[in-house]
Fold these 3 entries.
Entry 1:
Amino acid sequence: MTRPWLTNLLLVGPAALAVALFIFLPVAVVFVLAFTDYLIGAPSATWVGLENFQQLLGSRLGRNALINTLVYAAIVIPASVGLGLIVALGLHSLATRLPRIATLLQTVYFLPVAATLVAMAVAWQMLLHPSLGLVNTWLSALGLSGQQWLTDRDIVLFTLALIGIWQTVGYNMVLFLAGLSAIPATLYDAAAVDGAKGGWTRFWTVTWPMLGPTTLFVLIVTAANTFRVFETVATLTEGGPAFASDTIVYALYREGFVYFKAGYASAITVVFFAALLLLTAIQILLIERRVHYR
Amino acid sequence: MRPILSLRHVTKRFGETAAVQDVSLDLKEGEFLALLGPSGCGKSTCLRLLAGLDRPSAGHVQLGHRDVTKLGAAERNIALMFQSYALYPHLTVYQNIAMPLRLRSLTVMQRLPGAALLSVQVRGVLSDIDTNVRAVADMLGLTDLLGRKPGQLSGGQQQRAALARALVRAPSAFLLDEPLSNLDIQLRAETREEIKALHRRTGYPFLVVTHDQADALSMADRVAVMMAGRISQVGTPHAIYHTPATREVAQFIGQHRMNILPRGAGGALHPAGAKLDLGVRPEHLAVCHAGTCEARLPATVESISFQGDETLVRVRGPGDASLLMVLRGADAPPEQGASLHLTAVPGALHAFGEDGDRRELAA
C-alpha cells in the first residue's frame, strides 16, 4: 500500500512488455523496413523512400494482386453475410419445430469453421480434381461439361471465392443466431398487434433493425478475414495459374518468404494494414450510428 | 351494454398443463374491466388469447358478433400495451406511434423509403397519419418527445409512448398488461388516475390485467378474479370485497389476508360457524369491552406490531386458530399475553362451505 506504483508496475508490466515486444515493436520495424530495400539475411539495407509502394501500386503484378483481392472480397463478403443470415433465419425458425434437426444442421454448417482450413483445402483439391474429382464426375453425370476448377485462369478466383464462402457462412450463421435469440419476443408480439401480417413485414419491422449491431460486427469480421485470404491460395493454387489467383497476403508471403524481399513485403503489409484500418473505421463511422439505438 | 370482446369457454393448454380452463369473459362496450389474479393464474394467457397472439386449444374468441378465434392479432384491431412496453428501440417516439397506422394503411411497396416522393396517394395517407400521431401525442403530453428514441425516455415517458402507440388507431378494445408494474410508487398513483381519465375521454373498452388488487379495485368498473386458470368471480370492486364468492377470492382480496375460523371454532361468533368455515377481515374484528356484545370470541394476544396509522394484533382464538386484527385510530392496543374477547358485526362475516364456495348467512 505504501508504494502503489510498484504494485501497478508489477500488475501491468509483464503484459505491457509482451504487447510492446511482440506487437508494437514488430509493427514499428515493418513500418521502417517498408521504406528500405532490405533483404532477409542481408548485412545492410538502403533507404529507398516510397519506391516499394510505387512498385506495388505501379507494377502490373502488384495491381493484379490488389484487384484479385478486391474481386474475391466483393464476392465473398456479401455472399457469406447474406447466406449466413438466411441460414440463421431458417435454423432459428426450425429450432422451434424440429429442435434436433436444427442443432444437427447448425453443427454441419459450423463444421468448416471448426476444421483446419489447410486440411479442408486438400479435401477440396480432391473434389475439384479435373478428371478424378467428384464435382466433375457429377457434372458429367448431369450431362454438363467439367471445368478445370483450379487451373483455368478465368475460373480459379471464383472457385476460391466459393470455398471462402463455404468456410465463412457457418461462422456468420452462429453470430446471427446469437443476435436472433437476443431479440425480445414481445417485439414480434407488438408488431403483430400493430398489424404486421407477413414474415416479410415482420422481418423489416423487427428482425433486421434489431440485428443491426450483429450485422455490423459480422461485416467487419468477415471483411477482415476475407481480405486476409491466404491458406486456400497457398495450398490450392500458389497464386496461379499465371498469377490469376494471386492475392495481397499471398503476394506478401511470396515476396517476403520466397524471394526474401523484406522491404517490399513490409510495404505490402503497411498498405494492407492501412486499408483494413480505413475500411473498419468507415464501417463503424457510417453504420454504428444507425445500429446502436441510443 | 353489448359485449365487444369475449372469451367463450376457452381452454388453453401448453403441453399437458392447462393454463386457462373453460374461461368465459365479456369485455363490454365502454367499460373498464380488470382481470385480477396472482402470478401464474393464467391472466396473461387470457390477454394473449384476446389479442390474438395465441390460439385457444378449445373454445371461441368473439369480437362483436364475429368469431375471430382463427384470426391473428393483425386482423383484430385490438390495441395492447405490453408490460415491458415493447417499443421499437430503433425508431423515434413519432415513428413508434405511427407504426400501427403505417402497417395498416400502407402496403409493403408503399412503405418503401421514397414512396412518398413518387405517389400522391402515399403522401395523402402519410399526412393523415401525421395528423393522428400529433393528436394522440398531444393528448398524452408527448409532443416535445416525438423526436427521441425510447432509450432516451424515462419509464413513465416510455409508458405514455406505449399508450399512444396503442391508442393512435382507434382500436375496438384496449388491453393493458400490468400497466403499472414497472413504475415507482409515486408515479403509480398518478398513472392510475391518468389511465382512468384516458378511459373516460376515449370511451374504448379497457381491460387491465394486474396482480395488484389496489390497481384493479381502484380503476375498474368490474373485476374478474382469476385463480389457477379459472375465473372465480366477476363483479364490481365493491361486490368482490364485500361478498367474495369463494374462500380463495376472500383471502386474495383485501390489504390484510382474511381470517378463516375453521368449522366449529367460529360458533361463538355466529351459529352458522358450527357447520361452516367463517371468514372475517382483520379490519372488521374488534375488541369487545366489558360484555357489551352478543357474540364473543375468546382469544389471547400473541404479538402486537405498531405501524403508525394502524396496529396489527395477532391473537390465538378457539380451535388454535391464529387470527389477525387491525386496530385503527385511537383504540388502545391490548397488552401482550392478555386475554380478551373479540367481536364482529354479523354483516362482516363470510361463511364458506366445504367446497370453498360462499354460503349466505341469515342475518
Note: The mean pLDDT of chain A is 85.
Entry 2:
Amino acid sequence: MEMGGADTGGPLTLALLWLAAVPADGPLAVIDLDGCMYPPAAVVCGIDLRRLVIIRPPSPRNFFHVIRELTRCGGFDAILGLLGKATCVSLAEAGQLRSFAHEARTAVLLIHDAKPEQGPRFPLADTRLRVADRTWLWDDGELSGQCLCVDMERSRLGLADSRYELTLRLYRQGTHGTQSDHLYLDSTLRTRGQRAFTATRG
Amino acid sequence: MRLQPLEAEPDAIYKIESMGQPLLEVRPQLEAVGIRPGLLLREVQARWPKLRLRAYQYEQASAAFESVLRTLDSFSPFVESLTVGHAYLDASGLERQYGSHDQLAWRIRKAVQIGSTYSAQVGVGSSKFVADVAARAAAVNGVWVVPPGQEIKTMAPLPLEILGLEPDTIKRLHALGIRNAGAFAALPDSSILHRFGAIGLRVHCGLHGRLEEPLQARSYPLVLHDQLDLEWVEDNLDRLQFACKMLVDRLSMQLVRHGVACRALEICWRFEDQSHYERTLRLAEPTARSEILLRHIRWHLDGLQIPQGITGIRLRADEIYPGGGQQLKLLSGIEARIPDVERRRCARDALGRLQARWGDEMVRQAELTSERRPEQSFLWRDATLPELELDSADAVYHLHLPFLLHHPPWPIRVRHLRDGRKIVLLDGRRYVVDRQSGPWRLHDRAWTVDAVARDYYQFETEEGQAFLCFRSRGNTRWYLQGRYA
C-alpha cells in the first residue's frame, strides 16, 4: 500500500491509525528515515508501544535492505515506511517486497511526500492513496484534529477513483469517557462515488 | 577467618547509618585506653582528637573483601562468606597439597596479606563454630588450630565474650560464677535451651563438637568466553569469518557442556595498534547452536568497517539462560497465520540481524515517562518485543502532540507583520501564520539546574502546515519543537 501527500498533508496521522487498526497483536515496525518519529503520537493513535519497533537506518540507501529483512522474516504484522524525499523503490524491488509480504501476511504501507506529477514511489502497490487536501480543526482555541480529503488512485478491490473525506479528531481524557487522550477516525466516510460507510473507531 | 586492618589503615571505623555513629571496629591495642566498639563518634572525637577515624562504606569494604575471597578460592573450591570480613573455607582433603592444617593456616594468612590490604586471623576447627571462635582467639599469633575431638580441652580457658554469646547472657553467666568456655560447656544439656536460648544452645553444642552446620559455598557467575590471538595481522573478512567459526564452535561446545544457552554474544576485535572495538550481538532467543551464533557474526562482519588489521578476536557468551527450547504451538493461528510466539521469534531474529550489521541504536523501542517536556516524555530502550500481558498506563498530555519531533529543537525566528499576524522564518523560508493558539506555559523542574520555562504555541500557516513552537523564557528565543503531520 502506498500513501502520498505533500509536505503539508497529513498522511502520517492516517498511517498510524491504520497501523493501530491492524487486526492482530503481533509486532509492528516503523522505518523512520528522517529520525523524527515521535513515539507518544503513536500511543495517542492507539498503538501499544510494546508492539512497536522503530528502526532508523543509517542512510536512505539502506531503506530497501531494512524493509526486505523485516518483510521476509514473517514476524511483523505490519510495517510502516516513512520514505524520504529521495527514496523510491524500483520495480524489481517492489516485486520482491510484494512477494515476501504476501507470503508472510505482512501489511506494508509506505508514505511519502512526493508530488503527484513525480509518479508513484512504490510500483505494484495493491492500493495507492493520496492526501489531496487537508484542513486543520481548531476547538476552544486549540488544534484538535484535521479533515483529510483522500483520493484512492489505485485499488485492487475496485474502489479506485474515489474520494474520501476523513475527520481525525483528538478526544481528551474526561470528555470522552474515562479513556486517555485518543485520536479517532471520527466521521462517516463520504465518497464521491456515492458509497457511504461508517469508519468510527471506538 | 577474620580480618583486621593493617598498620597504615585508620585506628577505628564508625558506622554512618546508625544514630550517633557508633564505632564498629577498633585496633586491639587502643581498647586498653578505653576506645572500644560502640562508643559514639562525637565522644571519641572530643576525647581523642588525633585518632584516625574512617566511615564504614559497605560497597568499598565489599569490593576490597572480594580480593580476599579470590585468594581463598585458590586454596579450596568451597568458600562461604555471608558477611564482609568473615569467610569459611572447607579444608578437608587439602593435606596432601598444603601439609598439616597448621601449615595451611599460615599459608592462607600470608597469601591474604600479599593479595590484599588486610591481615587475617585464621582459625582451624572441626566445624564453622569452632573455626570462628578459633579465629577470634587468634588475635595474638594470627593462627590458632583446634584439633578435632579436643574442642573442650583446647577452648576451655577462653573467656565467654569470645564465644559469640549475647551480652545479657554473659552477665547472667558471670553472676553464676561461670567465666570461661570450659565452665559453660560443663553445664547440663537439659537446661541450656530453656535458660540461655537458641544462641546459648548453639555455643554449648559447638563446644562439645556436636554442631553440624554445612558449608554454603558461594556461587560464581558463569563466564563463558574464548579468544584467539592471531600471529599475523589479518584484514581479510573471509579469513576472519573462518577464525570466528573456530571460536564459535568452541564456545558452543562450552555452552552445551554446561547445559546453558546465551541470549547475546559479545565480540571484541583487537587491532594492530592494540585498540579494541567491542560489540554486543543480540539473538532472537537463547541458543547454544554454533550455526546461529556464526550467522550473527557473519551479519556483523557484513557491516564491519575495518580501519586497520586485526590481531585478536574475543568472544563471550552473555545473558546466560538454562538450556532448552521454547515450546511452539502445533496448530497454526487464525487464517493460517504463523502463531504469535513463532512470529515474535522471527521478528527478533530479523531485528538482531539488523542490529548486528548497524548497531543496537538503529533498532529501538520506546516507553513513556511522566516528564512534561515533549523531548523527555519517552525513553528509548532495547528492542525486546515483550509479550503483551499487562495493560500499559494511560498517558495524559497537555497538548495535541506533534507527530514529528525535532530534538534538539530547531531555532526559528518569529516576526510580526503590520497587520498583526506573525511570520515564522525557518530554513530561509517565510511561513505566514494564519491561526495560532497559546501560550501554554511549561515550567519544569524549577528547583533543579536544568530547569526550563517555555511558552508553547501552535501555529497553522497559510501554506497549510501546523507547527508546535515554543519561546524560551530564559533567552527569549523561538524554537520549532515538532510538526503535525
Note: The helical segments of chain A are 11-20, 39-44, 63-73, 91-104.
Entry 3:
Amino acid sequence: MKLIRLKGGALAGAALAAGVLTGVAAEAPEVVHPAGKTSTEYIATLFVFMLATFVGLDVIRRVSRLLHTPLMSLTNAISAIAVVGSLLIAGQQHGTGDWNWINLLGLIAIVASVTNIVSGFLITDRMLKMFKKREVKKS
Amino acid sequence: MNETLIQMAYLIATGLFVFSLKWMNGPETARRGVLAGVAAMAVAVGGTLLNPGILVSNYKWIALAVLAGTVIGVPLSWVPLTAVPQRTALSHAFGGLAAGLVGVAEFYVKFSEGGKGLGRFEVGALCAEVLLGFLTFTGSLMAAGKLQEVKFIPSRPVTYRGQNLINLSLLGVAVICCVLLVVDGARFAHLFPVVIVLALLFGVLLIIPIGGADMPTVISLLNAYAGLSAVAMGFVMDNKLLITAGALDGSSGLILSIIMCKAMNRSFANVLFGAFGQVQAAGGEAEKRTAKSCTPKDAAEIMENANLVVIVPGYGMAVAQAQHRVREIYDELTERGISVKFAIHPVAGRMPGHMNVLLAEAEIPYEDLVEMDEINPEMPQCDVCLVIGANDVVNPAARSNPKCPIYGMPIIDADKAKTVLAIKRSMNPGFAGIENELYFADKTLMVFGDAKAVTGEMAKHLAGEGEGGHRTVG
C-alpha cells in the first residue's frame, strides 16, 4: 500500500518537475546551456531517470524476501557502475601533462569500485548457492 | 563510430542489469541473475575502455588499479556469513567514496577549463553526487565499525542534547553552499571543499545515534544513497548507463528501507533522528518476577511430542553461530515426522534477509523459511515455538501495551503457541531495553545458556545420545 502511495507521489513529483522544466524550455526554446546542451537534452536525461526508477521499483518489489541479503550485495556490485566514471577520469588527459592528481583520484575510485564489483558478485553467488530446495522425501 | 559502439554497449548493459534484478525474484533463477550482472558489468567496462579520450599510456595504471581492487575484493567475499552486514556496509562505503572522488575530479577538471561544461544543472548534480557520496562513505564506515564492534566506535546509540539540531544545521549549511555554487559556480568555487568536509562530518554524526536493531533500515538507506550518487554522476557526465544502473540500485535501497521501517512500524525520520533504547533501559521493573526454566533435555522431550514446531531465530542465533546445531534439531524432528518451520521476522538480524542466508548456509531447505505474515495464522496450531536469540520480535507488548516503545510493531505471535521454549543467555532485556512479557507467561519455559551450546545439547538428546546433560544457568 505504502509503495503504491509512494509511487504515486514520485510520479506526481516527476511530472511536476518535467512540467516546470518543459515550461522553462518552452519559454526559451533554443537556449544552449554552458555545457553545450539544450533544455530538451536535459529533459531526456530526466526521462531516463524516471523510467529507470519505475522499472527498478517494480522489479525489486518482486524479489523474494528470502533473497534480500543477496539482493543487497548484488545491487552493491551494480552500483559499482561508478567504475565507468572512474575509468574516464583516470584515463583521460587533464591539463597539460598526461598525468596529474585528477588521474590519481580516478585511480583510487577504480580501486574502490572494482573491489565492490569483485566482492559483490562473488559473495552474492556464494550465498545463492546455499539456497537449496528440500531433497526428495526419503520415506 | 566508436561513440555509437559505446552507447550500444551501455544499452545492452542496462538491459542485462534489469534482467539481473528480475531473476532475483526466486532462488531458482537467482544465480542466473548474478551471471547477467557480471556480463552487464563486463560489457559496460569494455565499452568505456573504447573511449578515444582514454590515453593509451594510462592503461597500465588502470590495469594496476583493477588488479588492486581485485586483490582487496576477493578476500572480502570470503567473510563468514555472520559478517555479511559489515561487509555490505563496507562496500557501501567504497561505493560512496568512488562517487565522491569522481565528483571532486569532475568539478576541478571543468573548473580549470574555465567552467565551460558546468551549467547550473551540472553543478547541482555534482553537489548532490559529492554530498551523497561522501556522507555515504563516512556513514557506512561508521555503520561497518558498529556492526564489527570495533573498539573505539560505540555500538550503542550515542545521543547528546541538541543532536538533531546540530545535524540538521550542518546539513543546512551544506545545502546552502550547494545553492550558492549552483547560482554562481565560479564565484563560490572555494565553497566546494566546505561541502566535502560537511558531507564527511554529517555522515559520521548521522550514524552515531543509531543502534544495532535499526541497522537493517540504515544499511538499506545507505544502499539507496550509493545508488543515487551514481545517478547524480550520470547527470554530470551525461552518461545514461550510470543513471539507469544507479536508479535500479537506488530503488532497491528505497524499497528495502520501506519494508524495514514498516516491519518496525516506524518512520524514516524516527529511525534516523529518534534513537531509542535509552530511556527505558534505565527504569526496569521493580517487582521481581520469576520465569520458569528447564534443561535442554526437557526441552528436547517437549519437542519430540509435538506435531508442529516453529523456530523463531534472531540475532542471538547469528552471534552464537548456532545455525548448524539448529539444523541438527531440524533433522531429528523432521525424521520423526514432526513438521518444523522457521518464522522469519523482516528485521531479525542486522540486515534485510540476514536470517534466511544463515539458515540456508546450514542447508535448511528454503521452503521451510516462512515469512511473518504467513506463519502468524498458523501459530495457534503450533505445539512448540522455539525462540532462539530473538527478543523484541516476539514481544507481545508490541500488541498490547501502548506505552511500550515498540508498540504497534508487527510481531511473530509466539505467545499463541501452546508451549514456548526460549533460549537466552540471561534475563537481561534485549536491544530495545524492554522487558518481554512472553518470558514470564505460564506456557513459557526458559532454557538458559549460550544458543550454540543449548541447541547442540538439544540435538544430542534428540539423537538419543544424551546422558543426563543437566546444564542450567540462572
Note: Residues 24-30 of chain A have pLDDT under 50 and may be disordered.
